[in-house]
Amino acid sequence: MFEEKIEVIAYSGYRDEEIPRTIFLHGERIEVMEILSQWTEERSDDRERKRSYKIKGSDGVVHRIYYDEKSMEWFYILKD
Prior knowledge:
Elements: E1 2-12, E2 18-25, E3 28-42, E4 49-57, E5 62-68, E6 73-78
Antiparallel strand pairs: 1-2, 1-6, 2-3, 3-4, 4-5, 5-6
C-alpha cells in the first residue's frame, strides 16, 4: 500500500471530527458525493490515530483517504 499527501476541504462537526467534502488529487478537484464507510485505527504502541474514509467521488471513482490526527494531514491510499 502506498500513500500520498493530499489537500482536503473538510467540515468540522460539533465533535471537531473532520469530515471530507472535497479532495484535490493531482490537480483535480473531486467532490465527495457519498461516504461509503468510515473507521478509526489506533496503534497500541504510541496511540497514533487515523480516521479512514472510503468515499465515492464526483469523478465516479471510489477513493480511500485518511486523516492522521498526529500530523493533522490528509493522505490518499494508492492501490499497490
